Amino acid sequence: MGAANNGPEMSVSTRGILNKVRQMVPPMLDKFHKGQLGRVAVIGGSQDYTGAPYFSAMASARLGCDMSHVICTPAAAAVIKTYSPNLMVHPLMRQSPDDEVKQLDPEKVSASIIEMLPRLHVLVVGPGLGRDSLMHDTVSCVIRAARERNMPLVMDADALQIVQRDPDLVKGYREAVLTPNVVEFRRLWDSLGLEDPGTAKETDKVEVLARALDGVTVIQKGQKDLISNGQLTLVNDLEGGRKRSGGQGDTLTGSVATFLAWRKAYLDGLWDGGHELGEDELIGLAAFGGSAITRECSRLAFLKRGRSLQASDLTDQVHDAFTGLFGDDDGDDGGSKL
């Protein structure tokens, strides 16, 4: 797999996995119509947090999903709409009112969001969600409805707190991908009452956590990204940038979501090609693809910005990261060329 000049160095293992991921990348064909290559929605965004859902949704859009939505509170929607006209912003979430007499029913709030689910392929839950109890209860209702539809979920940030309190919400759901950082991973670990396996293998803990959640895919973010559903484990050792600014994880959630949407297109056979990948490995490969894009975005952005790097700098690098890892887009039925 040839990288561009000054492209990322990678291990033989990572190169092989990326070659598999490439098979999921749809070619750019005239026969496709709007929406076939991905309809992704980010549920998050509150009065205090508007950047995170924007970065997630924009990463998804820049990577190549056809339609990128943000579902947030009215206060957040008014702000996010000013960031980009390319996103579809829906002010359907609600935060708890100050007046205790006027408490809202999360099932009623979630109803209009659940009505949108048939028009979507993947949900990202958590960026900018905050810790408001009504927001969390509403999201729980939506997750249950998405699970009934077998819709892929990518969960991060404050959505992981919901999993800590109610692991059964996602336990056993193999369409779910969790993306905890070091602190979030430890909190999930403790909430499940897990014990240190006592071995030196770097993937032991992520495998234990994934098995405790009965097959959920976990991306343990760190110096390397460790990805496992408890049975299949992948290690992404691509170099990233050295600046750890807030918001970089939002590029990961949006990127994983787009790869999950492409997974559906791959399974639906929307283009001619080998289609040799097993369905049981596609979630892990989608997670690896999103991880690889994010780490390469971080590397490229750090080369340009150094210690001044911010989350928006990763957004600007999504296309270059894609072409560096997977090659230029083409119109052949076989997909993108490396």
From TrEMBL:
Localization recorded for this chain is: Cytoplasm
User: EC number(s) in its UniProt entry?
Assistant: 4.2.1.93
Cellular component, GO, one term: cytoplasm
Please write the reaction equations for the catalytic activity of this protein.
(6S)-NADPHX + ATP = ADP + phosphate + NADPH + H(+); (6S)-NADHX + ATP = ADP + phosphate + NADH + H(+)
Q: Which residues bind (6S)-NADPHX?
A: G128, N181, V182, V183, E184, F185, R186, R187, D250
List the GO molecular function terms.
ATP binding; ATP-dependent NAD(P)H-hydrate dehydratase activity
Organism domain of life = Eukaryota
**All residue ranges annotated as the YjeF C-terminal domain in the record:** 17-325
Which residues take part in binding ATP?
221-225, 240-249
Q: Which cofactor does it need?
A: Mg(2+)
Classification via Pfam families: Carb_kinase
Gene3D superfamilies hit by this protein: 3.40.1190.20
Q: What is its main location?
A: cytoplasm
- Give the protein's recorded name: ATP-dependent (S)-NAD(P)H-hydrate dehydratase
Species source reads Metarhizium rileyi (strain RCEF 4871)
